[in-house]
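okkk here we go again. third time trying to get the flavin-adenine dinucleotide bound version out, last two times i messed up the smiles copy paste (missing a bracket lol). double checked this time i swear
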Amino acid sequence: MFSNNQTDILIIGSGIGGSTMAAGLASSGLNILILECGAQLPDSLANADQDKIFTEQFFKPQEEWFDKDKKPFRPGNYYYVGGNSKFFGAVLARYRKEDFLEMEHEGGISPAWPVTYEEFEPWYTKAEALFKVRGDARFDPTEPYHSKPYPYKAIEDEKAIKVVKDKLIAKGLNPYPLPLAVDIEHWKKTRKVPWDAHPHFFNGKIDAETGPLTQAIQYRNVRLQTNSKVLHLKTSPTTNRIEEVIYSLNGELQSIKPKLVILSAGAIHSAALLLRSNNLQNSNGLANSSGMVGRNFMNHNCSAIIGFNHKYTNDAIYSKTFGINDFYLNDGAKGLPLGNIQLLGKVSGKILKANMPLIPSLALNYFSKHSIDFYAMSEDLPSANNRVFVEGDKINLVWERNNWEAHQKLVHKFSNILKECGFYLVLNQPFDKRTPSHQCGTIRMGNNPKDSPLDSYCRSYDHDNLYVVDASFFPSSAAVNPALTIAAQALRVSNHILKSSL
Ligand SMILES: Cc1cc2nc3c(=O)[nH]c(=O)nc-3n(C[C@H](O)[C@H](O)[C@H](O)COP(=O)(O)OP(=O)(O)OC[C@H]3O[C@@H](n4cnc5c(N)ncnc54)[C@H](O)[C@@H]3O)c2cc1C
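finally!!
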């Protein structure tokens, strides 16, 4: 069915964007080849071993990127079938209706998207079905309109978590069940660890591999090829279409001529690949007549907040079932937006030890047993100066935080609330550039080709057979988890492609 070096559609990357595109296009009968640079993450004891995951950083690639001061760092960016979602917290949240509109923040303006929430809504509904999301849309005051309820009922809070949730409700907050792509019964049967940051092999987390990819490769016309790293896209000198893609398969150079290319290598690698593929006609890199490829990198401002009280005992296992959006659209007192709070996912003594190796394990285990942990997330605003650029194989990531004051206010506000709930010791720790988990924005979509490389269906303005469908397309980062929005857009784009001719 597949000829040696031709295919109808080539998808680069099997993360949320690539796998969901494959699922959306599979029924077309077109030959679809997915090239993934990583291998399948195997079933192994290491998957549930917190010493391996956090102390040894066993799954983190031995890779270096360079920061604004040219200093090397080792990023938590994962290359497996399923991409970063193999490690994700499986919170599949819709962006709020307001996130699609221009919004003022303390650090500046968050721009409007070229599509409205109303246009996106049916695709969110389909993506929730594809990822079998468990949730309940009735509790969050910022929840936008849903045309259908979540396909499965929300995952219940563990006992120790419910106690704290009730205290927050008594303080006037509106905790809501996190929308989660986890088959909790399956997970509980096989795993006694949280799912956020914990890899798995078909243990109940519905990620890009176990969800859309598994569905897509059931079709004979869809093929996944692993250990295949795309190195270069070549354009035709006459049409400027992508005519050939060069990749390395287990170290050997190969080439393929697809009719359509869908680039889904993640916000950093997709930009890097386009920049590296520069040629005479496209001296700035491909898809880059706007000069915006690689720019407007965003990553969310995030912190862990941990509240401790020696009389509180936390025997919860996964601890990731509710969130709070009471400060999402404003600060709770008509001020500017601050962001989202959600449970982080049980920070154990071993996880603390990986971050604080000098403190005795006994003390850290005690602290963990009597504490509860949250994740505070605020919007990171697009700035052309925050960018990915390449020097040969080298990836440079320049990221200066903005809207940080709003984030600090959120951390301060929620820390005080936890104190009022009896957690007399509250600690916080920001996540830094080594955690590019929510990377986005580097090849944004927009209505004006002068300032955006992609149109609102993620098609390149410069090359009409190139689409970029991963977190790169985001015009703004909002302040909730990004994966569902990538998946919804992938379904919307695949439907659009099927309606047009290749
Ligand atoms: C620890 C952690 C927790 C997270 N928790 C959540 C959460 O709870 N909710 C949420 O919404 N989001 C979460 N995220 C973020 C979420 O996982 C990402 O937003 C999402 O996976 C991004 O999908 P993507 O398609 O843009 O890219 P990726 O997932 O990065 O996929 C890109 C794929 O392309 C492959 N690739 C890269 N370069 C090449 C190349 N040159 N050739 C071939 N293949 C290539 C990669 O191996 C990878 O498989 C989390 C991320 C992490 C790391």
